[in-house]
Amino acid sequence: MVGRGRSPTRHSWRYWLTPGMGVKRFVTAAVAGGVLLSLGAAGGVVWLLGDGRQAASEPIEAMLTSPDWLRLGGWIALGAFAVGGWLVTWSVGSLNRSLLSHWLPEPSEVAPRLHERLRRARGPRIVAIGGGTGLSRLLRGMRSATSNLTAVVAVSDDGGSSGRLRAAFGMPAPGDLVDCLAALSDDEAALGRLLDYRFERGAELQGHTFGNLFLTTLTEVEGDFGDALRTANRMLDLSGAVYPATARPVELLVRKRDGREIVGERNAHEGGGAIAEVRLSPAGADALPEVVTVLGRAELVVLGPGSLYTSTVPPLLVPGVRAALLVSPARLVYVCNIMTEDGETTGLDAWDHVAAIHAHLGRYPDAVVVNDRALDEARLRAYAEEGASLVEVDPQRFAAAGIRLIRLPLLDDGVHAQHDPDRLAEGLLALERDWSRR
Is the pLDDT of residue 273 over 80? Predict the structure, then answer.
């Protein structure tokens, strides 16, 4: 037990000298300073001795010309150099640990954590747009590769706890934002369990999650939903940032392909049939300045995965978000859903999904990622009972439009047809690296 307890400290020393830690330069400066200090001290002693300096130099000269020195002097010098180097490195590392350990429970964790943060800080600048469980799963996979990760989240949900809080406080829907905050936390298990906790008692609290109440409280304290998210990002120390597409409450207006008009996201699936178009009310809701800024600096923008018309498209309808995307130099990638959704994308294939994005955004994606791992019969039957089916892919339509089609084995295990977070992140990062080399 003792050996295992000490090993993190022992192994953590190697992190201090790895590239990017900013320690080697200070070690070098410390060594140079020590050499100059020694030379200065020696010069000062010689100067003070004046004509009597030979009394000090003769014993040194005798030692340096002795047989023992000629035989062992090189090893002694090498040993002194090694000990001195270790001492300087240990001193600088200990100083850093002493300063940083006030913010960490275990001093031995300082170097590995700092090394990991610096590594992720050099990662690509990625913006993920959407909502629902698809976006939070994407963030969960991406957060280990880069901290330059921003989620721009749909806030048009008007059902459940989010809907009740919207009606009571006149604020945007907090639910999908809460899921993304948890997904970007380095301590997701603990934070997610806290934010996802749903009250089962109390007439006023019953049905609400703590995360929704947390953002509602921050909004009341800060006086603005955008400021509430800025505060939440700082408080939770995330590997990235989470922002709403707009800080104003908006409502989703739905037009079905049979001409029916439906008001509200919670009613979007009424009566079945695919959706033809969605709009926001009010139409001129403003985007947060941070969202516009990150879109202008992004290297990669990812749409989806998630419900096409109720999660992925709504953020694109905010004028500031749409305008920033149309001029952004970033590559745009759409992660296509594995299954259709009854009452939303019934009967639509992958190209229909992409055409819907173009119709609402005014821009085609540069690439579309689709799953090519076969779905088992049990899940196919379960989805068929819900009126859902596999999203079919016709490669020729993408080739004709000049859109890169990327097939990856993304299907996760379990009862649902969801994307595996790690495999999806790995595929998107490989695509970004491929583009950056061109």
Answer: yes
Q: How many CA atoms lie within 13 A of 160 on its CB side?
A: 16
Quickly tell me which residue has 């990622």 as its tokens. Answer: 369
Amino acid identity, residue 342?
D
108 or 307: whose pLDDT is higher?
A: 307
Rounded distance, CA 423 to CA 140, Å? 11
Q: Which amino acid is at 121?
A: A
Cα dihedral 35, 37, 40, 42 in deg (nearest 10): -80
pLDDT (tens digit, 9 = 90+) per residue, 160-212? 999 999 999 999 999 999 999 999 987 777 888 898 888 988 878 888 999 99
């809080």: which residue's tokens? 165
C-alpha dihedral (263, 266, 271, 274), degrees to nearest 10: 80
The whole-angstrom separation of Cα 94 and Cα 92 is 5
Query: For 209-226, what is the mean pLDDT?
Result: 95
Single-letter amino acid, residue 135: L
For residues 70 and 366, what is the distance between their CA atoms, to the nearest angstrom?
71
Output the six-digit token pair for 152: 């721009």
Residues contacting 340, CB < 8 A, separation 6+? 346, 347, 348, 388, 389, 390, 391
Backbone angles phi, psi at 201, to 5 degrees: -130, 165
Helix or strand (DSSP H, E) at 232: helix 225-236
What does the domain layout of the chain look like in residue ranges? 2-119, 125-436
Name which of 70, 142, 416 is nearest 299 in CA terms.
142
- In what order do the strands lie in the sheet containing 241-244? 241-244, 149-153, 126-130, 300-303, 331-335, 367-371, 404-408
Contact predicate 418/134, CB 8 Å: yes
β 275-281/251-256 pair status: antiparallel
Edge to edge, the sheet with strand 261-263 lists 261-263, 251-256, 275-281
Q: What is the pLDDT of residues 299-344, one digit of tens each?
A: 999 999 999 999 999 999 999 999 999 999 999 999 999 999 999 9
pLDDT for 2: 38
Work out the angle at residue 57's Cα, subtended by the Cα atoms of residues 55 and 62, and round it to the nearest 5 degrees.
105
Only one residue has tokens 């999806």, namely 424
Superfamily of domain 125-436: CofD-like domains (3.40.50.10680)
- The confidence score (pLDDT) of residue 5 equals 42
DSSP 3-state of 48: helix
CA 58 to chain centre: 66
Range name among 7-16, 202-211, 371-380 with the lowest pLDDT average: 7-16
pTM of the model: 0.79
